[in-house]
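User: Could you check the structure of this?
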Amino acid sequence: MALTLYVDTERWRAHQRAVLADFPDLVPVCKGNGYGFGHDRLSEETTLLGCDILAVGTTYEAAPMKDRFGGDLLVLTPYRRGEEPVPLPDRVIRTASSVDGVYGLVGSRVIVEVMSSMKRHGVTPRDLGKLQAALDDVRLEGFAIHLPLDRTDGTDAVEEVIGWMDRLRAARLPLDTMFVSHLTSEELARLRQQFPQTRFRARIGTRLWLGDHAATQYRGAVLDVTPVAKGDRFGYRQQKAPGDGWLAVVAGGTSHGVGLEAPKALHGMTSRAKGMARAGLATVNRNLSPFVWDGKQRWFAEPPHMQVSILFVPAEARGPKVGDELQAILRHTTTQVDRLVDG
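Assistant: Sure, the predicted structure tokens are below.
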């Protein structure tokens, strides 16, 4: 009995091929938990796609990935002096986001990240005068820019990239390759038209692996079902059952990522009102689970345990049975499954 990720394999791969067609020179990204699929699986899929490079988050992810993927590996986290050295082969490319970082990577293959409107990390325009000398001692693979997802101020992503291309050209820095993130295929085509001598490579993770929501589904198996009457006590904290029904023990707990939720950016009054409503219910121990049964998302009977969750299913619903599977609405990037099943 497990928390399972079911994959419609042909549909999932058809989506990958469609993304690759829209983004020639694609750089697939595999970081964190491998977008719910795991690093082994995504390295295999990247090989099947015929891509010559795979981006990972950290050197710690690159170390085991070097034995799974035979092409180049791009480490997205910028190098910092004093970081723990991790033995990596020459086909690993490091990211530098400062002049000092470039100087610390003598002899290495390097991509230099420039500071975008994300304001996360990157060299700034005032650094460019010092960058040329630093690049003499590394093997420059190109520059990179990581753009924001939303542009609430109405600015244009392409214009931001063009601005950096102009600055790099004015500083007499090579514009052979530019790695970009969070551009549409149309925006990328505009850049290629304006800079035909530059190779633009889109780094894509979420859109590639998770862009077709209908291609995947999480399901948790029912391990036990116990009938309860209103007022019966149960669980670690001996709370009272809110009504007649069943306690369903379902595979999937905190070790799987169930009950964990990343903070959301709320836009507009409706989403804020919903957030306040959820917070209010939580203060009286009413938390909606990600599990769906008989057409409705069911409430946690109590906070999820390490490997299972206990749900309250009211008497008016169809009674679950051991071995049934409940669909689970889970975030791929925070979920660890027991097994993945291709279909």
